[in-house]
Amino acid sequence: MDLEFITTYYQFFLSGTINTVLLAFFSVLGGTMVGVILALMKLSEKKPVKFLASAYIEFVRGTPLLVQLFLIYYGLPHIGIDLPDMVAGIFAVSLNSGAYVAEIIRGGIQSIDKGQMEAGRSLGMSYKMTMKEVIIPQAFKNILPALGNEFIVIIKESAIVSVIGIHELMYKTDVVRGITYKPFTPLIVAAIIYFVLTFSISKFLGIAERSMRASD
């Protein structure tokens, strides 16, 4: 297997990796914000609010990410919203991730003892304040491993945004394949990079989880 092309085209892999990490980071950040809102909506006692959150979650989880990406990328310009490719990709992946994160957060919130809410309310805190200051911080501790897994999933699924021209790792890999006429070996390099990214994040999250347990 001839890997000499790496010394010539390593910058392609490097820039692609950086864009992949940026895409995943901002998508998880956006997905977490969307997920918190959806989780609180789904836990609401107001039926219309709960219905809207449930409908959104079921629609997103029931349709392919590729379809959602095309709807955002090609659909928004028709209503006068023209986003840069990278922003459109982050937006689409964030909305997709938000549906999955919402269920993770909802489960985390429901895992907190109901006495915590009652204690907060008895101290004169409002429902919103109790959720913000007491319930949600504890829930995030419980769901950190699941959120970490979502980050890893997004890093792997981010390859799909290459179809709209975002220069992430898979896009750059295809460029190298075209330039070098090597259909196989650049994919091996990309696979190794993806593995290093996901393995490193998994180990980091494990350390963070043990640190939080030790501080309890």
What labels describe this entry?
single chain; 216 residues; mainly alpha; MetI-like fold; flat
CATH-level-4 superfamily name of the domain at 21-169: MetI-like
Sheet of most strands = none
Structural shape: flat
As a percent range, the share of strand residues is under 5%
The number of E-state strands comes to 0
Task: Produce the secondary structure layout.
Blueprint: H1 5-42, H2 47-61, H3 65-75, H4 85-110, H5 114-122, H6 127-157, H7 169-180, H8 185-215
Helix pairs in contact: 1-2, 1-4, 1-6, 1-7, 1-8, 2-4, 3-4, 4-6, 5-6, 6-8, 7-8
Polypeptide structure, described:
With 216 residues, the chain is mainly alpha-helical. The chain has a domain at 21-169: Orthogonal Bundle (MetI-like fold), CATH 1.10.3720. It has helices at residues 5-42, 47-61, 65-75, 85-110, 114-122, 127-157, 169-180, 185-215. Helix 1 runs antiparallel to helix 2 (47-61) and helix 1 crosses helix 8. It is flat. 31% of the residues are buried.
